[in-house]
Structure formats: C-alpha cells, structure tokens
Amino acid sequence: GDQEAGEMGLAAVPGRQAAFRQGLAAAVQYAKAVGCPRIHLMAGRVPLGADRAAVAGEMETTFTENLRYAADLLAQEDMIGLVEPINNRITDPRYFLNTPHQAAAMLEKVGRPNLKLQLDLFHCQIMDGNLSRNLETYFPLIGHIQIAQVPGRHEPNSPGELNFPYIFELLESLGYTGYVGCEYAPKGDTLEGLGWLRSYWESRGLQHGGTSKAAE
C-alpha cells in the first residue's frame, strides 16, 4: 500500500484489490531474489472515519478473497503466506486484524494449507495474554514467531512482562523448528543488544552459534 497515505497493507481493504495483487506480485519477485519462502500478507487499516463494526463484514469478505488469491499464487512458487494480528491498543488503533482468534478464524474460513499464522508475542500479550495456551492452541497454524518485550518493545531481557527463556523452552517442547524473528527496537546499539542471545545460549550450554558444546 501507500504508506505516505496512511496505508499499512491492503489485503482486507475494500476497493484496493488491484493494488493488493500488484504489490503481491512485486513481493514474490523480491522473495524469490533473496530466497525467502514466506510473505506477510498485511491486512491493512479500517478506513479513516469508518466505524469498525460497520465495515467488518465487507473487510472480512475482501480479506478472504485476497487471501485465497494470494495462496493460489504463492503455491505456484512453493511459498507460504502469513497473516499477523497487530494490537490496536498501542501500535495501531485502526489495524483490522488484531487477535490470534480472529486470525485463526480467517485461516479456517479461507482454507488454504499454505497460509499460516505469524504470531508476534508482543501483540498477542497486549491483546490477549494467555501466551502458553495460545501457543499450544494455535501451534498447528503457526508459520513464524516474532518476539519483543512488553510493554517497551525492546530486547527480550529488558524489563517487562514476558519470561522469554520459559517461552523458548515451551516452543522447543511443542516442536517448533522455524525462525524466531526479533521484531524489537534495540534500546541502544544493535550488536550490543544481541547480548541477551549470547547469554541465553550460554545458559543452555550452547556455543555462540546455537551448537552444543558436548557435540563439539
């Protein structure tokens, strides 16, 4: 979408289907160039001045149609489409897709195996909490995980509500083998901020590349 015009994705925005398809085609080309098999299909915002409840039905219909179109196109490239709930309490009051429950319902309605849930634990904690149960419940749908501490959206070891060592071990116990994206704003220098990961590896008896010392 047009970020300067206040757009934040187009997949659920009525009347912007052509632009969504154009943007998706460009995204596929970028993804192929860098070897990335997953594309975030951003829902977009409730139109300015519109009542969310009044436009919800039309936006859901648009979202469903666009997701099916995207899934069919991505299947030809052996790619996965991701939908991410973004909280409307802090980050974006107008974003259409806000909770994992809403996202799961959309994925079930669309019914395409190559569409998955991009679960950002920052947004999930703000909207619903109950992270352990939500991870367990929606685990079969999850295609990507993102993390940030709540409420500051900084490094996982910064002061906040979430116990990330526990969450990482829970993901391991569930059998998660995908990436965990660091969707946070470093409090200072990026490399210095990654010290939390080195500390976590050491606490698990791992080298600085995630490899076991015992295995070495």
Number of separate structural domains: 1
Structural class: alpha/beta
Beginning-to-end CA distance, first to last residue: 48 Å
Strand numbers in spatial order across the main sheet: 1-2-3-4-5
- Biggest sheet architecture: 5 strands, parallel
CATH architecture: Alpha-Beta Barrel
Q: How would you sum up the global shape?
A: globular
The SSE order reads HEHEHEHHEHEHH
Average pLDDT confidence is 95
CATH-defined fold name = TIM Barrel
Rg result: 18 Å
Strand element count? 5
Instruction: Please report the number of helical segments.
Output: 8
The CATH class name reads Alpha Beta
CATH superfamily: Divalent-metal-dependent TIM barrel enzymes
Regions with little confidence, pLDDT below 50 for 5+ residues: none
Strand content: 5-15%
Helix percentage range:
40-55%
Protein name: HYI isomerase
GO molecular function: hydroxypyruvate isomerase activity
Domain Xylose isomerase-like TIM barrel: 9-199
Keywords: Isomerase
